[in-house]
Structure to design on (203 residues):
């Protein structure tokens, strides 16, 4: 299944949640897209359908393909600790997500593109793999080139109202961020019931 590149508001309306961030349009049309959207469905969803929906919401939020998401779940399942929480931590500490969190990319899609095009360094070395997992102590910064810094500065201006999470230390003047600790559930504040995702994959 290819990465979704269609209208983001359509996905948010489908699930009735701001998957890609706050949207006034979603507030005005808080029902599924399509001609039958405003009509209330009387059909009760099965447990499988509910779990699938939660998984899809999280996958769309972070912009992952199904195979990528499943692989990340398997990595989380093999680690010690609570699988659902570990999965969310892995998703949050992907390099493209960290780039998005600090404002180098106004959206996760743009953040992924910035990483893939080689505009980001981790611990002084260029990293162009969006799925790269950062760890506490890692330093993430824009490359010291005019093109890279102009690109991230443009995103920083449009993302000025977004708050950088507490688990990341960020210095806007030097285009430099550092991971201070692993993110907690309170930091992440997931929009899904991650336990339902764990149960979905455990069937």
């Amino acid at each position: 299944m290819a990465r979704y590149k269609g209208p983001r508001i359509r996905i948010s309306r489908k699930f009735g949640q701001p998957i890609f961030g706050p949207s006034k349009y979603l507030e005005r049309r808080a029902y599924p897209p399509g001609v039958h959207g405003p009509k209330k469905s009387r059909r009760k969803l099965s447990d499988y359908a509910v779990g699938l929906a939660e998984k899809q919401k999280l996958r769309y939020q972070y912009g992952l393909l199904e195979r990528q998401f499943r692989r990340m779940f398997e990595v989380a399942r093999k680690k010690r600790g609570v699988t659902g929480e570990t999965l969310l931590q892995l998703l949050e500490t992907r390099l493209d997500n960290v780039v998005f969190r600090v404002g180098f990319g106004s959206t996760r899609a743009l953040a992924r593109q910035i990483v893939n095009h080689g505009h980001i360094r981790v611990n002084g070395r260029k990293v162009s793999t969006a799925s790269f997992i950062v760890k506490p102590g890692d330093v993430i910064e824009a490359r010291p080139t005019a093109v890279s810094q102009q690109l991230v500065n443009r995103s920083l201006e449009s993302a000025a109202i977004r708050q950088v999470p507490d688990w990341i230390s960020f210095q806007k003047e030097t285009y430099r961020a550092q991971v201070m600790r692993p993110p907690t559930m309170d930091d992440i504040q997931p929009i899904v019931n991650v336990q339902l995702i764990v149960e979905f994959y455990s069937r």
In short: The longest strand covers residues 139-142. The chain has ten helices and five strands. Residues 8-91+190-201 form a domain with the Ribosomal Protein S4 Delta 41; Chain A, domain 1 fold (CATH 1.10.1050.10). The chain has a mean pLDDT of 86.
